[in-house]
Design brief:
Layout: H1 5-8, H2 13-16, H3 25-34, E1 40-43, H4 50-57, E2 61-66, E3 75-77, E4 93-96, H5 103-113, E5 116-122, H6 132-136, E6 140-146, E7 169-175, E8 183-187
Parallel strand pairs: 1-2, 2-3, 4-5, 6-8
Antiparallel strand pairs: 5-7, 6-7
Helix pairs in contact: 3-4
């Protein structure tokens, strides 16, 4: 395989280490305006805690876990979400910004554990035949596309080229109670 990383200023996946692209708080506030969320929520890729903090400030009880310790307050590290066999007691909704390189696995596993899964992903997540079986379940209820670009999300401790804000993002809402095609709407990533 040809290595374009030297030409593009990016690092190979193996060299980059674990994904941690902190979610802009404005994106979580936009989700709160678009969706009614239950009191108890699980954030299984909590990172530094941006999603957790906004949800807790809004009165939600958030069970925060991550494989790595990125410093999220009141969270458990060392938890491999893909090996979890059940959701925390009383939790029916997962809200997260999963590592994109394993987003499909993350969403599929989350749907095995909770009836409602809400993930922040690149809009390009829709563009693949490989994810067809995930969408063929018929439980993608809504896609909230950001009208404007979100503030730049950089990899934790990034020392290379900075990411641009030219990537389109959306909140994908998967719900086991949903039937039919997903609804599409636009939300603002500005307060």
């Amino acid at each position: 395989m040809l290595d374009h990383s030297a030409q593009s200023g990016t690092h190979r996946l193996a060299e980059r280490g674990p994904d941690n692209y902190s979610t802009p708080p404005v994106a979580v506030r936009a989700l709160l305006r678009a969706e009614t969320l239950p009191k108890k929520i699980w954030e299984p890729a909590c990172g530094t805690g941006n999603i957790v903090g906004v949800l807790r400030d809004a009165g939600h009880h958030v069970y925060a876990t991550d494989l790595h310790d990125w410093g999220c307050p009141d969270s458990r590290s060392g938890v491999d979400f893909l090996r979890e066999i059940c959701a925390p007691l009383g939790t029916i909704t997962i809200v997260t910004n999963p590592p994109f390189k394993i987003a499909q696995k993350f969403v599929a596993h989350a749907l095995d554990l909770c009836p409602r899964v809400i993930v922040l992903l690149r809009l390009a997540f829709l563009e693949t035949q490989r994810r067809g079986p995930l969408f063929d379940r018929g439980v993608l209820a809504r896609v909230h596309v950001f009208r404007n670009r979100l503030p730049m999300m950089h990899r934790h401790n990034c020392t290379g080229r900075r990411a641009s804000s030219g990537i389109a993002f959306a909140w994908f809402v998967f719900d086991h109670n949903h039937r039919g095609p997903p609804a599409l709407d636009w939300i603002s990533g500005r307060d």
